[in-house]
Design brief:
This protein has a domain of 169 residues: D-Amino Acid Oxidase, Chain A, domain 2, CATH 3.30.9. It is built from ten helices and 21 strands. The strands form four sheets. Strands 5, 6, 7, 14, 15, 16, 17, 18 and 19 form a nine-stranded mixed beta sheet that branches. Bound molecules: flavin-adenine dinucleotide (FAD).
Length: 391
């Protein structure tokens, strides 16, 4: 696509920043515009941690992409001043025997068939291996050592530095309210204060705010609020790997997953469940009975945390697509516009490979993932295999 010279990226989360980095590497003049500060306090890419896993049930495509991404995390760790990806593994626990057709067994079978060596829990092993967990309740599971977590906000801040070093212009204080169009061609964006930016192509990577700029997609992607809870146990050393790695406990049946204590001794857990549909600028506070649902889970799972006061809590927004797949494609109806978002609560782990996917889509290069992430019509609503549906 030799005629494209300049690209305006709206949004500096991981979709936007990695797109900017890759497009600059491919020779484009790139500008990134965001309301700022970056990382934005309300951005999905800004939190203490995000899970990195290849465990995707029987979904070989995401599993392959994740394996590529993990190699990318290791390359970044080697290059950055501080390691921001921590390969502490992923412990999947189940209160029922693992069975074919269920997320845990299907992940285990797929990954072992691909040569990854996972450690299946043997009966009675849990108290020795992960003593914080209620071994009377969790009877099965496995540990995947090729997994871990990334310091999300710090990664986003580091990417901003990398983007800046690659010659990309970064503009903060720019909150796009409308795309500029000449005939059928999108050619820039106008901000709330009237400022205008022009480019050959516009990549809208504004997370949950994307549909404010591309309203015709509002029937196919929407913001969904999810609760996050942070606890500060008096014995944080007991909540660190190897005895307390990142975990998912009955996750397709409960939604709960979490992380080891961070350097401040804070343990984080969150729900990968149905969530609640909210407007993008909703106040980021927990709604309804989420805390009592969380405490009920802790009582049957992690008794050492169940009675602690909540150290902090917040609502964080997924940009859910109707089918749980990312949205990385050019608008088939309008020239000059592409959308890169729809993380559906599982895109952060792919950060090292996202930019390549966006740049390929912009250049019209097919790759094994293009079709899955293509601009598509609404179908029967579905979700990622690991996601708890609330039923
Ligand atoms: C609670 C929660 C837990 C998650 N857990 C995991 C996990 O464990 N593992 C995993 O892989 N993924 C996880 N995810 C998903 C992952 O974090 C997201 O998919 C990813 O960070 C989304 O990045 P983004 O760039 O699309 O959006 P964002 O990070 O939200 O960035 C959007 C950017 O657009 C900017 N913007 C907004 N409006 C405008 C405008 N008008 N003009 C210009 N810019 C604008 C914002 O300021 C922001 O910087 C989780 C997400 C959430 C919310």
């Amino acid at each position: 696509m030799a005629s494209i010279r300049s690209v305006l990226v709206l949004g500096a989360g991981v979709f936007g920043l990695t797109a900017a980095l890759e497009l600059a590497n491919r020779g484009y003049f790139v500008t990134v515009a965001d309301p700022g500060p970056i990382p934005h306090p309300k951005a999905a890419s800004n939190d203490v941690s995000r899970m990195v896993r290849m465990d995707y049930g029987g979904d070989g495509l995401y599993s392959s992409l994740s394996a590529e991404a993990i190699e990318g995390w290791h390359r970044w760790n080697a290059r950055w001043a501080r390691e921001l990806y921590h390969e502490d593994g992923f412990l999947l626990l189940t209160s029922v025997p693992m069975a074919p057709g269920e997320f845990e067994q299907d992940s285990y079978s797929l990954l072992t068939s691909r040569g990854f060596s996972l450690e299946k829990l043997t009966p009675g092993e849990l108290p020795r291996r992960a003593p914080q967990w209620d071994a009377g309740y969790y009877i099965d599971g496995y540990f995947n050592p090729r997994a871990g977590w990334a310091e999300a906000g710090a990664v986003t801040a580091q990417l901003l530095e990398d983007v800046s070093d690659s010659g990309v212009e970064i503009i903060t204080g720019f909150s796009a309210v409308e795309l500029l169009q000449q005939g059928n061609k999108v050619c820039g964006a106008v901000a709330a204060d009237g400022a205008r930016l022009w480019a050959d192509w516009v990549v809208v990577a504004a997370g949950v705010w994307t549909t404010l700029l591309v309203p015709e997609l509002a029937d196919r992607m929407w913001p969904v609020g999810q609760p996050i809870f942070y606890f500060k146990p008096p014995d944080p050393e007991n909540y660190r790997p190897p005895l307390f790695p990142p975990w998912g406990a009955d996750i397709p049946r409960s939604g709960w997953y979490g992380f080891p204590a961070n350097s401040d001794g804070v343990v984080k857990m969150a729900n990968h469940g149905p969530g609640i549909r909210v407007p993008p600028d909703v106040e980021r506070v927990i709604q309804g009975d989420e805390e009592s649902v969380c405490r009920a889970f802790l009582s049957r799972s992690l008794p050492g945390l169940a009675r602690l006061p909540v150290h902090e809590s917040k609502l964080c927004l997924y940009s859910d697509t109707w089918d749980g797949d990312f949205w990385i494609d050019r608008d088939p109806e309008r020239e000059g516009l592409m959308v890169a978002t729809g993380g559906s609560g599982h895109a952060f782990k792919f950060t090292p490979v996202l930019g390549g996917l966006v740049a390929d889509a912009l250049e019209g290069i097919e790759n094994p993932y293009s079709k899955r992430f293509a601009w598509r019509a609404l179908g029967e609503v579905k979700h990622e295999e690991i996601r708890y549906t609330g039923e």
